[in-house]
Amino acid sequence: MRLLIMGPPGAGKGTQAKFIAEHFKIPAISTGDIFRANVSQGTPLGIEAKRYMDQGEYVPDEVTNLMVRNRIDDPDAVSGFLLDGYPRTQAQVDELDGMIAFTGHRLDAVVVLTADRDEIVTRLLQRAEVEGRADDTEDVIRRRQEVYAEETEPLIEIYRDRGILIEVDGMGEVSEVTQRIFEALDGLPES
Ligand code: AMP
Questions:
Q1: Is 69 marked active-site?
Q2: How many angstroms is it from 58 CA to the middle of ligand 1?
Q3: Are 99 and 69 in contact (CB under 8 A)?
Q4: Spatial CA neighbour of 86 closest among 136, 140, 32, 42
Q5: pLDDT tens-digit map of 74-109
Q6: In a mutational test of the pocket of ligand 1, which residue from 4, 18, 35, 51 has the highest number of ligand atoms less than 8 Å from its CB?
Q7: Is 106 assigned a catalytic role?
């Protein structure tokens, strides 16, 4: 199973990604989490990524693409994966297509969590208090929403055109959203 989860920052992608990954016994690969781990370990990748993350901007495609390429080459991702937060640009969509085609597989589905913008800004501000993420200040939250709307939201149409898009209402209880996702995904043929 090769899946993507998309949606605006704060829509609950990370939370749902963990449940989906467990359900299908595939790793959930979050580019944001990998960047954050590198930032906290002070690696050269982390130092580079932090400059962008702190501003709410995207890390350059070359850096992000190489990181994902290395990660999905890991043994645990050979039979499938769920990507959370990637691809976010057209160049990343193209790169991912190449990576998957190279293995002779295809993308099975793209889950998009839809969410109300005011509601998610509130959620992100709450998360900022709990987790203390450096990119959860109000200005950066707003910038991240803008960058998503400009660069990533239009990419959803690519997957709609391919007939693999699954749109799920991301509002409501976490367990309700998980249920909606499972219902949509369980009927998919295994590739
Ligand atoms: P996230 O946790 O997915 O919201 O990601 C946090 C931050 O990491 C983003 O605001 C970006 O700065 C960076 N990031 C994560 N994924 C990507 C990506 N696919 N392309 C570029 N930057 C990314």
A1: no
A2: 6
A3: yes
A4: 32
A5: 999 999 999 999 999 999 999 999 999 999 999 999
A6: 35
A7: no
Instruction: Give the number of residues written for the chain.
Output: 191
Whether 162 is catalytic is: no
How far apart, in whole angstroms, are the C-alpha atoms of residue 94 and residue 51?
Answer: 25
Give the chain's residues under pLDDT 50. none
Q: Give the Cα separation of 168 and 181 in Å (integer).
A: 7
| Atom 3 of ligand 1, residue of closest alpha carbon | 32
Domain 2-184 in CATH 3.30.70.270? no
Is residue 144 among the annotated active site residues? Answer: yes
CA distances from 159 to 4, 89, 104 (A): 10, 13, 19
pLDDT number for residue 191: 57
| Strands of 28-30's sheet in order across | 28-30, 81-84, 2-6, 109-114, 165-169
Looking at 36, 88, 123, 162, which residue is catalytic? Answer: 88
At residue 185, the pLDDT reads 93
Domain ranges of the chain: 2-184
CA of 35 to the centre of ligand 1 (A): 8
